[in-house]
Amino acid sequence: MMPDMALLVVGANMGVQVMTREHISIACALQLPIAVVVTKVDICPQPVLKTTRQSLAKYLRQNRKMPYPVKDMSQVDAAAEAVASDRVTPVFAISSVTGLGLELLKAFLAKLQRNRRNFMAAPVDGMSGHVMPEVHFPIDGIYEVRGVGIVLGGTLTRGKVRVNQTLLVGPDRVGGFVPVTVRSIEVSEGTTFHPTITSPTTPLSPFMLAHLHRSLCLGPKHQPRLTPIRRPSVSVC
Predict the structure, then answer these.
(1) Least crowded by CB within 10 Å, which of 20, 66, 134, 235?
(2) 4 three-class SS
(3) Cβ of 198: how many Cβ atoms within 10 Å?
(4) pTM score, whole prediction
């Protein structure tokens, strides 16, 4: 998986827990931009909310993150642009009951773009990290049915999939794609596809099955090769 950013959810009445600190540390270690959503502000007493904000800001600063509270729509554009720098962390205070802050959060998410630092690939057939392929089928379930083969479950978000069509599944850990052929298709609940796939060149060995996971997707035959950029970071204690 190569995520673009991390969205950290903190309960206002629960405060900054050990797991919250761990998630911030993991995101910093992976060099992921962070945005924080403080929830349940409608039931949280003001002194507790203030303590949660102060503890959160303190720990963010310890990890070289500058908290940026977003309180009105005029700050959303600046927050969406600044979060890509990996130094500014937008903080939203919301309530799912009263709807406080939800419009700000939705507007912020709508303005986010892919993190280009994660990819280094020449465009192929006009494709780039910001352009969707002709066929896009995110995989959310993988099944091996005896006598049938490998069945992939997911939702077709773009394009068309037909029987005997050759697609690519990936990217794997090194950014590569594996060619597969769709042998049959089953549609359930109106939107969920379950295509049965086989490899046109080599059998789907247990090694390949081990590399099939939910973060993969099916795409067109001409798919760019994605290469993750690794930036090692060494800390001396």
Answers:
(1) 235
(2) coil
(3) 13
(4) 0.55
Give Cα 153 distance to the centre of its chain: 18
Secondary structure element (H or E) that encloses residue 66, with its range: strand 66-69
Closest CA to 167 of 138, 205, 142: 138
Nearest to 2 by CA among 127, 120, 169: 120
Q: Is the dihedral of CA 205, 229, 83, 53 positive or negative?
A: positive
Rounded to a whole number, what is the distance in angstroms from the first to the last CA of the chain?
A: 29
Taking the C-alpha atoms of residue 10 and residue 116, their distance in angstroms, rounded to an integer, is 27
Within 8 A by CB and 6+ apart from 73, the residues are: 103, 104, 107
User: Phi and psi for 36 in degrees, rounded to 5?
Assistant: -115, 135
Q: Which residue has the tokens 């403080």?
A: 38
Q: What is the DSSP string of 145-211?
A: ETTTEEEEEEE--BS---TT-EEEEE--TTS--EEEEEEE--EETTTEE--EEE-SSS---HHHHHT
**How far is Cα 93 from Cα 44, in angstroms, rounded to an integer?**
11
Q: What pLDDT, in 10s, does the model give residues 51-94? A: 999 999 999 999 999 999 999 999 999 999 898 888 899 999 99
Tokens of 4: 């673009």
- Two structure tokens written together for 162: 């037909």
User: Which structure tokens are listed for 101?
Assistant: 């802050």
